[in-house]
Amino acid sequence: MPEKRTRQAAARDKREGKAPSTQAGEFVHEEIEHVREGKHGARSTRQAIAIGLSKARRAGVKVPVKKTASKAVRKRAARDEAAGEHPHKPSARRARATAGALKREGHGAASAKALSSQAKQSAAKRSAGSRSAAAKKAARTKGTAGRSAAAKKAARTRARRGAG
Q1: One domain for residues 25 and 106
Q2: Which residues neighbour 154 within 8 Å (Cβ) at sequence distance 6 or greater?
Q3: Pair (29, 103) in one structural domain
Q4: With CB atoms counted within 10 Å of each terminal CB, which end of the chain scores lower, N or C?
């Protein structure tokens, strides 16, 4: 079950007109935090992301399935969406088994290095146009104060790195 603050953050993103992937990102962040704080582990960064996306779908976020997704992934996503329409807890036995399996996994999947390499791999698969469109939408939905804060942060980063 996602934490209350995660559900609220996703709802806020939806109100602000942000993309479903941004709304789902809140659930993924929560999952990464759980792995980091030792609540459970994950076999890979991808698994942690997948768990977060599943939670998001079950919480009612309309996350589209990738065009390149396998039949099994599509089926699971459809099942998660259906479960989101009629929420109920999984059986205690199943919940315990899942928690137990994840507890045996490591915590390296949520390290900065692992997340960075996952992000780079993911970005490399996208076209320049697609990345550019995403950046433009992010700037549009950020709001004036958000844009100003981002510009200041970028300026600080450039100054610190001695670039530009």
Answers
A1: yes
A2: none
A3: yes
A4: C
Per-residue pLDDT reduced to its tens digit, 75-131: 999 999 999 898 888 899 999 999 999 999 999 999 999 999 999 999 999 999 999
61 and 119 in a single domain? The answer is yes
Question: CA 117, CA 124: separation in Å to the nearest integer?
Answer: 10
- Measure the CA angle with vertex 140, ends 136 and 144; round to 5°: 130
DSSP-derived 3-state class of residue 53: helix
Which alpha helices (H) appear in the chain, and where do they start and end? 4-15, 20-36, 45-58, 71-85, 92-103, 112-124, 128-142, 144-161
- Report pLDDT for 148: 92
Range of the domain at 153: 129-164
**Residue 26 pLDDT greater than 70, yes or no:** yes
C-alpha to C-alpha distance for 10 and 16, rounded to whole angstroms = 10
Instruction: Convert the pLDDT of each residue in 33-76 to its tens digit.
Output: 999 999 999 999 999 999 999 999 999 999 999 888 999 999 99
